[in-house]
Design a protein that fits this description.
By secondary structure, the chain is α+β, with helices and mostly antiparallel strands. It contains 17 helices and eleven strands. The longest helix is centred in the N-terminal third of the chain and has 22 residues.
């Protein structure tokens, strides 16, 4: 098999600018000529083996960063944006999108931000009678989507917060450490009969935790409060770096960062990575070992992207019963639909039918990449009789080349072509012609309609 050439001009240029070096100085340190470096930065030449070795030896860089950029997810996000009917007659070919993502990632992000603003405007105009007269009517990105994209393009890994949580968790009893840290701030922890999970009374300096919650949930909420109160300077500095457009987005992101700290403290990076590799990523073993829920374990596995100590690149997604994606992250080439639901052929949807069981699936996307996917329901009880139960399903997976590192791959014949089920991202950008679950036609294909016959679909994809 031919070795794939590595074109990473934007990433190489970003590294040079981060080091505050001119092209001439950078070229000298890498042992290449100035014109050769210029060609590599503009993707006219692939990054050579000499340069890869020099980056590692001269600068101590994790060279996997060169191939772990935003290109794939930018292409996926742009394709989905181009599925908007407004582009029906002018959608650029896939090759152009790939060139844009590789050579002009800032332009790609600006386009996505513009399309998001357009969607927000379009949705407001569609409900104009409701928006008229409202003082808070505005045209800007949804705070929730803005925060989601922040974590999406950070690879769901926040280095400074992760290291701070790991230092905090350098103890044999994380629960005692959390209580002690809160008490140092003059805060008392009490278990209370209450509807919510957590309530902090700033005036009385009392943290109330629901006595209906599971022990791991109570611990997680304590760690979250530690982050908000005792790691505030770090969280605020991270938020300043992100430059959110609104106070609502900043506030949502702060909660997200506090949640990240709590998860990273409960499952410290080094110990968690070692344990995950030792048990071959058995979620139940890890849940017992770290006192966390199955969902928390799966989510943490998707964040193991620390430079120089990366784990298996996983994707993680959570969907509700309507198929709407409520959490999503991918350190793999698989990207999820930004708008709407996930592919109905994916096993995550079947998890609701088999509560308490893990479902395994070998799947192949239209680009020919093969994955192993694990799905399970994660219902969240209300804590009392008659309280509503929140029902979700999660999926965790990776490319099948990592199958040996997963206990869930045991007994599966990953060499058999027939073992793989075809899945996609969303119908609008899925190119499969004969999918029996297709809901809308693909964007880049012409349709043939024959009034004298009817198959599974009322049209044929050319």
């Amino acid at each position: 098999m031919a070795t794939q050439k590595l074109y990473a001009g934007a990433k190489l240029r970003e590294m040079r600018q981060r080091l505050e070096l001119t092209q001439k100085d950078f070229a000298a340190k890498l042992g290449v000529s100035l014109p050769y470096l210029n060609q590599m930065e503009n993707n006219n030449r692939p990054v050579s083996t000499t340069v890869v070795l020099a980056l590692a030896q001269e600068f101590g860089m994790d060279v996997t960063e060169l191939s772990a950029g935003d290109s794939e997810r930018l292409v996926s996000d742009m394709r989905e944006a181009m599925a908007d009917p407004v582009f029906a007659d002018d959608a650029p070919p896939l090759a152009d999108l790939r060139l844009t993502a590789s050579n002009a990632p800032a332009l790609a992000r600006a386009f996505l931000a513009l399309h998001r603003a357009y969607r927000q405007t379009h949705e407001r105009l569609a409900s104009l009678d409701e928006a008229l007269g409202r003082e808070d009517a505005r045209i800007q990105a949804s705070p929730w989507e803005e925060v989601r994209d922040f974590f999406h393009y950070c690879d769901n890994y926040i280095d400074a917060v992760d290291h701070a949580a790991e230092r905090f968790a350098d103890t044999s009893d994380i629960r005692a450490a959390a209580v002690a840290e809160l008490e140092r701030g003059g805060i008392t922890v009490r278990q209370t009969e209450m509807e919510g999970l957590r309530h902090y009374d700033a005036g009385a300096q009392v943290l109330h935790l629901s006595n209906r919650s599971a022990p791991q949930t109570q611990l997680f909420q304590m760690l979250l409060q530690v982050a908000l109160l005792r790691q505030n300077t770090l969280l605020e500095a991270t938020l300043d770096f992100a430059k959110f457009q609104s106070e609502e987005a900043r506030s949502i992101a702060k909660i997200g960062l506090a949640n990240y700290f709590a998860g990273a403290a409960l499952m410290p990076y080094g110990r968690f990575l070692e344990a995950a590799q030792a048990c071959r990523h058995d979620l139940e073993v890890l849940a017992i070992r770290f006192g966390a829920s199955i969902e928390q374990i799966a989510h943490r596995l998707s964040t193991m992207q620390r430079p120089g100590a990366k784990g298996v690149p996983f994707f993680f997604v959570r969907v509700d019963q309507a198929g709407t994606i409520t959490k999503r992250h991918s350190a793999t080439r698989l990207q999820f639909a930004r708008f709407g639901g996930a592919c109905p052929l994916w096993n995550v949807h079947r998890a609701f039918e088999t509560p308490g069981r893990f479902l395994r699936q070998l799947a192949e996307t239209p680009d020919g990449v093969r994955y192993i996917s694990l799905a399970r329901d994660v219902s969240k009880p209300g804590g009392s009789f008659g309280a509503p139960v929140r029902r979700y399903a999660i999926a965790l997976g990776c490319e099948v080349r990592h199958a040996d590192a997963l206990v869930y791959a045991d007994g599966l014949d990953v060499s058999q072509d027939s073992a793989y089920e075809p899945i996609g991202i969303s119908c609008r950008i899925c190119e499969r012609k004969d999918c029996h679950q297709r809901s809308v036609p693909p964007l880049e294909r012409r349709l043939t309609i024959n009034t004298d016959q009817r198959g599974v679909l009322p049209y044929e994809v050319s």
